[in-house]
Fold this sequence. Notes:
Number of helices: 16
Distance between the termini: 27 Å
Helix content: 55-70%
Oligomer: single chain
Strand content: 5-15%
Strand order of the largest sheet: 1-2
Low-confidence stretches: 102-156
Number of domains: 1
Largest sheet: 2 strands, antiparallel
Order of helices and strands: HEEHHHEEHHHHEEHHHHHHEEHH
Amino acid sequence: xxxxxxxxxxxxxxxxxxxxxxxxxxxxxxxxxxxxxxxxxxxxxxxxxxxxxxxxxxxxxxxxxxxxxxxxxxxxxxxxxxxxxxxxxxxxxxxxxxxxxxxxxxxxxxxxxxxxxxxxxxxxxxxxxxxxxxxxxxxxxxxxxxxxxxxxxxxxxxxxxxxxxxxxxxxxxxxxxxxxxxxxxxxxxxxxxxxxxxxxxxxxxxxxxxxxxxxxxxxxxxxxxxxxxxxxxxxxxxxxxxxxxxxxxxxxxxxxxxxxxxxxxxxxxxxxxxxxxxxxxxxxxxxxxxxxxxxxxxxxxxxxxxxxxxxxxxxxxxxxxxxxxxxxxxxxxxxxxxxxxxxxxxxxxxxxxxxxxxxxxxxxxxxxxxxxxxxxxxxxx
Length: 381
């Protein structure tokens, strides 16, 4: 336990101490976004998940190093390294999405000589859109340049398209497949019926599971601290469940994420000074999924992922085009962009809640679900 405590404290401190520097670096690099739900619409550093990744890596590697010395705890380092590889791969995909900035907008805004601002007229001097390679990039990314008709005209970042993001996630499952993570069979509770998945588990279910989990974590976001807070609760519960069931490796993965997220929440909770970006949501999804699979905790994982599953079906109704974030009203509450409910955040927007209240409400619901799951799966079933 001392080894685990040291590694978790290390992960917390690395994230906590590196985030302020990351804020300055990301802003200077043009990796920022507009916080649309604030009155003055401040521009905040995005891709804050990079500091959570540093903390997660530090916690995991310190734990593996301390357990490798003579007298250390016996753990499966191969499994931990596989999980670490999957998380790194998928985090890089999220980072690529975060840094896909609109260079014309950034350069036009920031470049100036004396009192005369330089107008970078890239599209007039060179018709970038007409180039063959740019046409292909536009189809993949959803258009590199800003959409002039978009309501998000203040956003200087346009990420990768949904299809390439989903495809790029699949290679992250390869390390878990290579080490044979997970169980090829599953016993349903109460009815005591066993399903043998066979070869379809590593070749189909595991990659699709990672694809689903990483994307639904990315879907349920939109308010300060929401994605990080809910992932913190879920990963903490997974760690507790894994530890109680003797799945130490799964607990280490989950708690390493929890430690880094706890530090990040200091900066990301309302009012945030840094935004998480896809690098965080994808990281959380990969780490949580790895913990589930390695600890054979899929049933418990599905239970605590109830809000995310609901979010998936709500977004499905809109063709995955709905916005989770809202429109700031005069009284500080948020109103939805849509007439129908396409996100769990919309449910609370209809109750005239503020951004902070929406975040706290959803995190509280996730906490209650996790506590119920721990009681149900450790005591009742």
